[in-house]
């Protein structure tokens, strides 16, 4: 949390409930608790955001001042295209397009490599579990991207949103499945992914250590 001078301070600690082992009940504490959160929101003008392997969160989204991939995904607006400069990216954590980060039917969000190039997302240096690239948003288009070298038991790309297009995306040498459409087993079927198109993609050399989950 921030104080008025924008200095970090520890979040307040408050006991909400305590278990009484003798009475075998939780004793509630109804005192009010206040939490302060700082929320960052950005927007970028135009229809194109540029990203490069050496881009950062302070970029402007232009060719001369590119963004990092996480910032472009988080702050892109429906109708904007995120263009990845060709080359290899080494994310240090998973990439997540969260539920609610959506385009629309008429204004999709697009993540694509620059013309004539491939953008390679190499997760060999990432600290990630389960899935390297989660797509929970709706109306996204991913095109001309490679997803590779995830750690053992970590999937490459999981498509869990709706109305997405995965075009010419290659997934290879990952530690689990390469491209998978799957929802959360704990959620009802109505929340599971539907109406997704996977076209012209290649998945090869993917396998978990037990060789149960693969291409």
List keywords for this structure.
mainly beta; single chain; 215 residues; 5-stranded parallel β-sheet; 30% strand
List the helices and strands and how they pair.
Blueprint: E1 17-20, E2 25-28, E3 48-51, H1 69-75, E4 81-84, E5 87-89, E6 95-97, E7 109-113, E8 119-122, E9 131-135, E10 140-143, E11 145-148, E12 155-159, E13 165-167, E14 170-172, E15 179-181, E16 197-199, E17 202-204
Parallel strand pairs: 3-4, 4-7, 5-8, 6-9, 7-10, 8-11, 9-12, 10-13, 11-14, 12-15, 13-16, 14-17
Antiparallel strand pairs: 1-2
Detailed description of the structure:
3% of the residues lie in helices and 30% in strands. It is mostly beta strands. It has a 6-stranded parallel beta sheet with strand order 3-4-7-10-13-16, covered by helices on one side. Strands 5-8-11-14-17 form a 5-stranded parallel beta sheet, with no helix packed on it. The protein has a 4-stranded parallel beta sheet with strand order 6-9-12-15. The chain starts with 16 loop residues before the first strand and ends in an 11-residue tail after the last strand. Residues 1-6 have low confidence and may be disordered.
